[in-house]
């Protein structure tokens, strides 16, 4: 099947330069994108058999380290899409501090993402930090604690607070995910997003933005923070 026909059948609309091809199965993660076998194992264990359309297209785009906007309806599996992308990039225990950050608009969502990621990293030494008041305080007291985590899941306010107090080092972050970007904008978190971006000083930073809707505020933000972005739009069932 041609790529174009495959995408059409799954209602995936994609635009941009040199767009990487979609995956048709989770097996392709290992076969074509050098994912470690544990990822496939844990996907099976937790009952994920087939990628959803947003996962098919956004994971290979992320693996190629492209900036992108992913627009797909609620319930379409955006969380697993960005968690897989992160797991491809952050698999070793380098002890060098955060290499990936997920910013989520609410604590409840951040907690769900954290639990999802804990499942996917079962049996691995990847350390995931859910930034709460309590462990932000613990990290403030003990700088060594900040080095032990690989991936950070946080709300914008909590992270900005930590940055301003010198408690979060984002200089090694290679992947920044903004989840529910529409909600981040609605809640007025643009300033916080800017501050987080300024703290991600690596020249090799990849940015992805996930959203169920694409208001102009989100388009505008994407335009100002991304380099040569790819845009992935997954249609609804009867769109
Ligand atoms: P979204 O963020 O797009 O609103 P979620 O990431 O919260 O959606 O996923 C919605 C539900 O779909 C969750 O229960 C999740 O576990 C499930 N899900 C995600 N990907 C798959 C998949 N590939 N196969 C089966 N279920 C999936
Ligand atoms: Mg979501």
From TrEMBL:
<protein>
    <recommendedName>
        <fullName>RNA helicase</fullName>
    </recommendedName>
</protein>
<comment type="similarity">
    <text>Belongs to the DEAD box helicase family. DDX52/ROK1 subfamily.</text>
</comment>
<feature type="domain" description="DEAD-box RNA helicase Q">
    <location>
        <begin position="28"/>
        <end position="56"/>
    </location>
</feature>
<feature type="short sequence motif" description="Q motif">
    <location>
        <begin position="28"/>
        <end position="56"/>
    </location>
</feature>
<feature type="domain" description="Helicase ATP-binding">
    <location>
        <begin position="59"/>
        <end position="232"/>
    </location>
</feature>
């Amino acid at each position: 099947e041609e790529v174009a026909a495959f995408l059409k059948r799954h209602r995936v609309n994609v635009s941009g330069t040199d767009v990487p091809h979609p995956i048709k199965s989770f097996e392709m993660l290992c076969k074509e994108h050098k994912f470690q076998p544990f990822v496939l194992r844990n996907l099976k264990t937790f009952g994920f058999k087939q990628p959803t359309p947003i996962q098919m297209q956004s994971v290979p785009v992320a693996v190629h380290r492209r900036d992108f906007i992913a627009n797909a309806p609620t319930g379409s599996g955006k969380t697993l899409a960005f968690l897989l992308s992160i797991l491809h990039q952050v698999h070793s225990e380098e002890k060098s501090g955060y290499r990936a950050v997920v910013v989520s608009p609410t604590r409840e969502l951040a907690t769900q993402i954290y639990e999802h990621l804990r499942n996917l990293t079962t049996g691995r030494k990847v350390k995931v930090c859910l930034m709460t008041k309590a462990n932000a305080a613990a990290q403030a007291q003990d700088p060594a604690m900040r080095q032990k985590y690989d991936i950070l899941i946080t709300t914008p306010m909590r992270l900005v607070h930590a940055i301003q107090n010198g408690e979060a080092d984002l200089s090694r972050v290679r992947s920044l995910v903004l989840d529910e970007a529409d909600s981040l904008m609605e809640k007025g978190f643009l300033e916080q997003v800017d501050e987080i971006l300024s703290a991600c000083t690596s020249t090799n930073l990849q940015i992805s933005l996930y959203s169920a809707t694409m208001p102009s505020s989100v388009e505008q933000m994407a335009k100002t923070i991304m380099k040569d972005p790819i845009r992935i739009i997954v249609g609804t069932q009867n769109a």
